[in-house]
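subagent[fold] <- orchestrator: predict structure for attached chain, return tokens only, no commentary.
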Amino acid sequence: IDIVCNDNLIVQAPDFEMYFQASGEFDDSNRNEDKIDLSSMVFNDEKFKTLEEKIEDGTFETYEKVYRRAEMFRPFLRKFIENINMNIDDFRSRTIDDFRSALQMYQDDIVAFNDLPISLDIDIIQVMSAKMKESIKHSPGKCLRDLHKLMPELSLQWCEKVYQDIFDANNRFRDPIVDIHSYINFLDFFNDIVSKLPEIQDSFNDVKEMLECMEVFKIKMPETLRHRFNETSSSLNKLREHVQKAEDNAETENTKFKRELTKLIPDLKAKVKEQTHILDHEMIRDKDSEVDRVVNYLSNAGTDVYTIYEAAQKYNEYERILDLDQSDLTSVLELKRDYDLKNKLWTGLHEWDNYLYEWRDRQFCDLDIVSINAKIDMYYKIAANCNNEYPTSEVPLVLKEKVQVLKDTMPVVTNLRDPALRLDRHWPKINDALGVEVKLDGPEWTLSKFIELDVMQKKDVIGEITLKAQQEQELERMFAGVEEIWKSQEFVTNRYKGENDVFVFDPQATEEIQQTLDDSLVVMNNILSSPFVEDIRHTIEPLGNNLKLLQDILEEWITMQRGWIYLESIFSAPDIQQDLASDYKKFTSIDHNFKALMREISDSPRVLKIFYRRPKMLSELHKDNSTIDSIQKSLEAYLEQKRKVFPRFFFLSNDELLEILATKDPQAVQPHLRKCFENIYSLEFDNDGNNDIFAMISAEGERLPFAARLKARDNVENWLGLVETEMCKTVRRTIKKGIPDYEHPDTIRTDWIKETCSSAVAVVSSIEWCRFTESSLLDDNPLEAIAECFEFNVQQLEELTQLVQEPL
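subagent[fold] -> orchestrator:
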């Protein structure tokens, strides 16, 4: 439009020359200099505006159509994204139905993608989709080719696995059955293959179904796959024949091998008798026999005994499989038990001598006490069991006596090796008991050396010393735990009211310290009351005394902080400072001490350091708390004096009263007026700063002006007394005025109630009711007068009911 409306272009156009050629009569000097703005004429034209709106609406509608028609491509784009992200290896775990569905889907997608239009004509817009179609149409074909490649490969893998399972089974059927052992193994195999045959058939059917699917979708089948499938089918038929043949021959074979098994049992029992005789050799019963020779003899016999035992286990299992009655092979178990006991006994004699030789010459401090005690218990138990089993044999007694010697000595040895024994406290006592100075790190101090000292004779003394050492160690462990706690224990302080150099205790952290202190004192009391503490008392008592002192200090300290916080807020008021000058002076000293102490703790918060910095801290705190108590007593007397002047102050707590007295501002009494006066919510002061009082206001917002201004100056107890007096005068005056107003003949009672203060309404209404009732009772016709009075009262109540339903 800007181009069309360019007047220069129009003037220069040859077609419009005739319209712009000036005639000879035209006087150019009178030409109007104002130019016509063609663009404005066009844009302001109503037809143009209407046409412009139609074009805009039409264009918008066309684009809406384009957007809706473009939605037809969205499913294809989703499928394209799925196709390019498809992982062909995921199909290795899919079912045949999944393959069939995927093949059909990709074939349909190829047709659908090829049918996509290359362009769309929508009104004045042409949507070009050729490039998009070219970009996405090959994706289903690629997926289909991948499936065509995978299915023969996967089918061959499945087929090979099924074929191998069938091939192995057929080969196993061909193995000859020569005796009862091979027959039992065959039965295990046969039962297993019969249970697996349905699974093998299902796997074969999967392969068959896969090949049928490939044939339906015209997927080329490799000759190798076809050949292997035919072989597998043939082998499966052969396997069924083998199974059927084995089932047909089962009864005959079972009878045959049952007879063979019944012949083996007597042979086994004969071997048991023979082996029992071997284990009853005189050499095994003789305590003087050479140990190594007997051990070798039993070792050789043990091979035959365990061979017999394993055979008996097999025969019983064979009988169960063949459904035969279980043979009584108790003699085999007795043979094995007899061998195990005798072998353990003679092996124990052999091993004990070796262990004892090793232990006796080992340095005492290197002995493994736990291992020695474990072996003593083991060999003593072997000797006891064998002695019970062979009461006439002397061999178990030999082992028992050997073990007993060291068994009796080990409690003393164990005590001497106790880690609780201290070189400086306990070993000197042990040396005195043994009569010799023991040097544990000396090479000559071996187990045999202690046995030579006959330590058994001193076992009671050594036991008492060891017990005391153990108890002392436990007490030291408990003490170390408490000591460790208080090494790192610190006070936590907070800034008081945001001031940088004034601190107070953090309440929660201080409570935790007190709890820890209580727990520690319980532990310390338990330690110090123990009968085993005497030798270590000198190391434990200092901390115990410090903790007790700390408990007293904390109690005084927290009491001082509580008193300081209470008095600090009171003496921060100049009026209180002036009224209680001597007490304020005392508080100034307390304030200085407390702030200095808390700054010191904030800078160095470690708890136990307090004893080094302030050795007389308890007495100082006690003195300051006594001063605080005297200040609080003076404060109580001061408040009592104020209450005597204005008794309504007794309705207020000390803190509330101090809040009023701490300032000269009369407004400070406003929050507490409701406690001092019945239903006076606030007082109305002037706004010119003179603190004159005009009226009192109730909790319901009712305003009752005073007859005269009250001056809220001087002490608060004085001018509040004036408020009390004026309150009574004002209410009395209001009631007195309310009586003639109520009785005036023109007075409408509901209007009078609205205009009169509520207290006057209540009193005047009661007075008038009494008057009316009394006059009715004294009337010449009292019954009629009382009835009239009743009706009058009912009417007034109805008026009141209607009144309270209106907004007052």
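orchestrator: received. Logging for downstream: The CA atoms of residues 92 and 126 lie 45 Å apart. The mean pLDDT is 85.
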